[in-house]
Amino acid sequence: MQLNTFKRSLLGTSTAAMFGLMLSACGGSDTLAPPSFKAIELNIAHINDHHSNLDATGAFQLKLDGIDTQVDIGGFARQTALFKSLASTPNLLKLHAGDAITGSLYYTFFKGAADAQMMNTICFDAFTLGNHEFDDGDAVTASFLDELAKGTCATPTPTLSANVLPQLGTPLAPSSGKIYLKPYTVKTIDGVPVGIIGLATGAKTSNSSRPLATTQFLDEATATQKAIDELKAKGIRHIVLLSHFGFDNDKALAAKLTDLDVIIDGDSHTLLGDFSAQGLSSGGSYPTLVNNKDGATVCIGQAWEYTKAFGLMNVKFNTTGAVSQCGGQASLVLGDNFKRQVVGTDGKTTWQAMADADKATLIGKLAQQSAVKVVTPDTNATQVLASFSDKVVQAKAQLIGTSAVDLCLVRVPGDTTDNRSGGIAACATANTLARGSDISQVVADAFLYQAKRSDFALQNGGGVRVSVAAGALSMNTAFTVLPFTNVIVELDISGTQVVAALEDAVSNVVDNGNTGPYPYAAGLRWDVDMSKAKGQRLSNVQVRSKTSGTWSAIEPAKTYILATNDFIAAGQDGYTTLGQIYKAGKYVNTYLLYTQSFVDYVKAKGSISRPARSDYSNQKVITKAGVALALD
Fold first, then answer.
1. Strands 184-189 and 192-200, how do they pair?
2. What does the pLDDT read at residue 31?
């Protein structure tokens, strides 16, 4: 795709000064000519948000060659194979845009060691911190980075964050002087220095994870521009921002910054590119092109989530130092164990492996499509992972029950940019329905079941991580759905405070663009109108009696008992009202691990399903754009 070429003002450089002297000596004009740079081409291979998903996701449903097909997708060893396949690619950068850890049993058992060793099978040129790197505090972050530094890479992967400022004497800034974080690094590409700046999402990390109170998260735009200016002062004119700030946030950020060329993005789990032929929707084109504050082109790329996609961007710079052309592709990373639906003699439809000849034909067709890559896992990376897998496999194998139906994950009802269907066909449009998240409702039900004293239970949508397919449920299902180390607490809360807490959460979604805080509850329901101002969005808030099962309006002055995870109880994710109650000591810690509570609930029920529609927390929903969502 050919772009307009933009000039950069680089007055004061030695090149410009010498050129000006030459003009004066010749009696020419005093006007300085624009400085000239070597035209270069940059290739950027990147992933983001793998969240300890080191194994492939099995039975993922796509349309391949126009037919519904199940296939393994992702797997870190396949990513390693793809990165290694680019070994002879000139001018290559290998980047990871954050949220490497938390999200599977590999993190539960190994706290980032497995992730670090797998990352070192690729040897990234840079890694930036995501918010989930802080889920268990700065000390665990530092331990993960220590493991990352132990690898056999010729140069250890630098961790970049221009806006994270740990206090001296804390784990990420020890008194010994060990440097964990740098604002940027510089790589020489075809003889030209290229600056790579790291960026973390500030407010989200402070509110949604557990960094030390002394660890500062500076304003994203201010910190990034400062780093750009420092690089400019060193004569560096090609700038890549490695950002864990989210796709929409980064589009807006680009317009505030001068001299920025490329953003490799993470956090929002956005699939970019055209995947309509595979039956998937996307959040925009790959790359997405926007303008920086100078009016020059900025190329943005992101590669979805959980090792399921691989991004490869090509950027050409002209002799003024500006982006002249930007292209590339994010590709789905697939195995070759294809299954398709077959109707048996009994009339029942089952998924069966394709015949070898049919599989070979399909692989040949897929080889002609840039949107998918069929990849054999790297042998060395597979061996590295095997050293961690025995304990994980044993735990994953333990069955805890079944799900009678597909339970879809939705962060925010009506959010069409954040579909987390997980390849489950029945969940493809769940985000367009008023009821929102099925699995988040079931999690809330589990909390209420376990917290016997409570009148109702609350769970933030971002704390639930995946959709659940109908069928057998294992320990792996539970720890993938709820991968964090939270416990259930019970808060004494008035009806007025309940409504205020819900308003806090919805405000953080609508006004701040964070999808994770959106509330789901058991024993509590409401209507929400996100097009209204804060304080007016929640209405018809009702409580279900634990004895009679009847619903009635919440009583403002009555004191209720709310069960929730200790994360939002402490005021994280924007739940300010809950935080005030928590800090006042008006709570009881049940010490029930929230994941284990879900496991125990499934075991007790034997089989779980969607609640009755009348028991969903979301009854009527109007989006920020004023659209009333379908009720079924």
1. antiparallel
2. 54
Question: What's the number of CA atoms in the CB half-sphere (13 Å) around residue 614?
Answer: 6
Collect the ranges in the chain with pLDDT lower than 70: 1-34, 417-419
- The DSSP line for 273-323 is S--GGGT---SB-SSEEEE-TTS-EEEEE-B-STT-EEEEEEEEE-TTSSE
CA distance 409 to 188: 43
Q: Which residue has the tokens 């009702």?
A: 542
Distance (Å, whole) CA 293 – CA 278: 36
Residues in contact with 465: Cβ distance below 8 Å, sequence separation at least 6, in sequence order: 51, 103, 409, 480, 481, 482, 483
Q: Which residue, 526, 542, 538, is CA-closest to 619?
A: 526
Query: Which overall architecture, per CATH, does domain 34-374 show?
Result: 4-Layer Sandwich (3.60)
pLDDT at 422: 78
d(CA 12, CA 234): 12
For the chain, the maximum distance between any two Cα atoms, rounded to a whole number of angstroms, is 96
pLDDT at 21: 37
Separation of CA 77 from chain center? 20
How far is it, in rounded angstroms, from Cα 480 to Cα 602? 14
List the domain boundaries for the chain: 34-374, 398-622
Q: Residue 354 has what DSSP assignment?
A: P
pLDDT recorded at residue 1: 44
What is the enclosing helix (H) or strand (E) of 432? none
- Could you identify the residue written with the tokens 């499934």? 602
Q: How far apart are CA 559 and CA 568, in angstroms?
A: 19
The two tokens of residue 354 are 């394709």
Nearest to 158 by CA among 238, 79, 96: 96
C-beta of residue 237 within 8 angstroms of C-beta of residue 7: no
Element (H, E) at 560: strand 559-565
Q: Could you give the CA distance from residue 54 to residue 306 in angstroms, rounded to a whole number?
A: 8
Q: Do the beta carbons of residue 214 and residue 120 sit within 8 Å?
A: no
Residue 34 has what pLDDT? 66
Cα-based distances in Å from 457 to 7, 115, 151, 557, 593: 57, 33, 44, 19, 15
Structure tokens at 499: 């409504």
Q: How far, in Å, are 500, 510, 521 from residue 537 at the CA level?
A: 10, 10, 17
Beta-sheet pairing, 551-553 with 456-460? unpaired
Whether residue 108 contacts residue 142, with contact meaning beta carbons closer than 8 Å, is answered with: no
CATH code for the structural domain at 398-622: 3.90.780.10
Which whole-number Å values give the CA distances from 140 to 81, 134, 165, in the listed order?
29, 8, 16
- What does the alpha-carbon distance between residue 608 and residue 601 come to, in Å, rounded to a whole number? 9
> How many residues belong to the chain?
632
Q: Are strands 456-460 and 372-374 parallel, antiparallel or unpaired?
A: unpaired
Phi–psi pair at 305, nearest 5 degrees: -165, 160
Backbone phi and psi for residue 205, each to the nearest 5 degrees, phi listed first: -65, -45
Report the candidate in 562, 438, 556, 460 with the shortest Cα–Cα distance to residue 504. Answer: 460
Cα–Cα distances in Å, from 602 out to 109, 481, 582?
Answer: 22, 13, 29
d(CA 332, CA 141): 29
With tokens 């772009």, the residue in question is 3
Q: Which of these, 389, 306, 387, lies nearest to 100 by C-alpha position?
A: 306
